[in-house]
Write a structure and sequence with these properties.
Belongs to the TRAFAC class OBG-HflX-like GTPase superfamily. OBG GTPase family. With 506 residues, the chain is α/β, with parallel strands linked by helices. The protein has 10 helices and 21 strands.
Length: 506
């Protein structure tokens, strides 16, 4: 079964969660945090190979998911990364986003790769959150959700010569005569419903020839599977128009050629710039027709050869001429994908932060902030408090206040709804007073012990307040290529989150 277009639903693997763990050993019952990070999830990639000729595998199994990353463990042990899923596709496959039609990659050489769905980053363990002020963090990050994407895989055959003609013109018989291909041959139109490939042995090079299913008027508009057939002509270096000379009473080969070139022009006008030959087939059955139409075609600028696919007359000359034109013609360039769409992870959440007003409240739009929420264990109070601090530092509260949010208003962030409860005590006194006035003059925002707001909060482990207040830096992102990026060469586990763990060691 030949399939040249299919939709694939791809999902990367979620990142593994970090773990909350503390060192336990003799004489140190309350040791430091040692929870390790989770592994990164696997990605789904498409890779071109010469060992695959059709997309039929993805017609029967269109859903593909990469493996998720493993959870971290105690003793700072990092979880294993999930395995990538590689989709082996034929050379000449074009990958497009199903929703917007954007070109992700054109795989025209063996080994060409493109990332379809990127896996999620592994979450950090509690050891990564230890600071001088937070010596025993009791929380960890969850694994980052992976990308999911539906793409259209479209095969455009990469061949040297395409045989183009009306149904029953003798194209299949010709490729069977020129090569070892064994296409279905019968005396009725539309015998060929899928392209047939054959390798023609010539001196000094071999060429790949495609027998394209017969075209009919209106093929450029999609009539009679026209688009499905014409796509296989796009990458051919040379076109051979096969015309039937044995049906003079029913059709004129000159009119057939004019109709064929008209369809090619309507589909992609640059196809007419390719080197082309005219093969007047079946001259053994009606040689007089060839004598009538050949002068007119040559006068119009066509190079004409008389052949008979049945007897072999003129086929060797045709093969040599095709090889000469192929050698003198450059290969067709692949479609150029736009610059890879960047993964939206700016240095600061302020760079991409937007607040939208909804009918029920407000919505914060920021891919980076959404990722923070998705990787936070909302059942852990300490983790939620850490998230609130990050949101405040990122300017989310100020953006909400500027948009008109008031205490108690529902706010949606990353698909989760919160009640807006601003924490403004860490702002300068003048700014806090101004914002407090905007928030209906809520006096509870002021600290009675520090009306000016310039005192440092005390920490039991750092009463002087001179310890570092900085959060640990986020780990470097995994070295994933961007979605849609082409590379030069190239089981799903349960979704349970890891919990707190205590370890013993003598």
């Amino acid at each position: 079964m030949f399939v040249d277009e299919v939709t694939v639903h791809a999902a990367g693997g979620r990142g593994g969660s970090g773990v909350t763990s503390f060192l336990r050993q003799a004489y140190e019952p309350k040791g430091p945090p040692d929870g390790g990070d989770g592994g990164h999830g696997g990605s789904v990639r498409a890779r071109a190979t010469e060992n695959v000729r059709s997309l039929v595998d993805y017609h029967h199994r269109p859903h593909r998911r990469a493996e998720r990353g493993r959870h971290g463990q105690g003793d700072r042990k990092r979880g294993a990364d999930g395995e990538d899923v590689v989709l082996a596709v034929p050379v000449g496959t074009v990958v497009r986003d199903r929703d917007d039609g954007a070109l992700l990659g054109d795989l025209v050489r063996p080994g060409d790769e493109v990332v379809i769905a990127r896996g999620g980053r592994g979450g950090r363990g509690n050891a990564a959150f230890r600071t001088q002020r937070r010596r025993s963090p009791g929380f960890h990050e969850l694994g980052e959700p992976a990308e999911e994407r539906s793409v259209v895989l479209e095969l455009k055959l990469v061949v040297d010569v395409a045989l183009v003609g009306y149904p029953n013109a003798g194209k299949s018989s010709l490729i069977a005569r020129l090569s070892a291909a064994k296409p279905k041959i019968a005396d009725y139109p539309f015998t060929t419903l899928v392209p047939n490939l054959g390798v023609v042995r010539t001196d000094p090079v071999d060429i790949v020839v495609a027998d394209v299913p017969g075209l009919i008027p209106g093929a450029s508009d999609g009539r009679g599977l026209g688009h499905d057939f014409l796509r296989h002509v796009e990458r051919a270096r040379v076109l051979v128009h096969v015309l039937d000379c044995a049906s003079w009473e029913q059709r004129d080969p000159r009119e057939d050629l004019a109709a064929l070139t008209g369809e090619l022009r309507a589909y992609r006008s640059e196809l007419l710039d390719r080197p082309a030959l005219v093969a007047l087939n079946k001259v053994d059955a009606d040689p007089e027709t060839a004598e009538i139409v050949r002068p007119d075609l040559e006068e119009a600028g066509w190079e004409v050869l008389e052949i008979s696919a049945v007897t072999g007359q003129g086929t060797e000359q045709l093969a040599r001429r095709m090889a000469e034109l192929v050698a003198a013609s450059p290969s067709q360039e692949a479609e150029v994908a736009p610059e890879p769409r960047p993964v939206l992870r700016p240095t600061s959440a302020r760079d991409d932060l937007e607040v939208e007003t909804t009918k029920d409240g407000f919505r914060v739009v920021s891919p980076r902030v959404d990722r923070w929420v998705a990787m936070t264990d909302l059942d852990n109070e300490e983790a939620v408090a850490h998230l609130q601090q990050r949101l405040a530092r990122a300017g989310v509260e100020r953006a909400l206040v500027a948009a008109g949010a008031r205490a108690g208003d529902p706010v949606e962030i990353g698909g989760i709804e919160f009640d807006f409860s601003p924490e403004l005590a860490d702002l300068p006194a003048d700014e806090r007073a101004a914002l407090a006035a905007e928030l209906d003059g809520d006096a509870s925002l002021e600290d009675p012990d520090d009306p000016d707001g310039d005192a440092s909060p005390d920490d039991p482990d750092d009463p002087g307040g001179d310890a570092s207040l900085e959060e640990p830096e986020e780990p470097e992102e995994p070295d994933y290529p961007d979605v849609g990026e082409e590379l030069e060469f190239g089981a799903v586990t349960d979704d349970g989150d890891s919990g707190a763990a205590g370890r013993g060691r003598a």
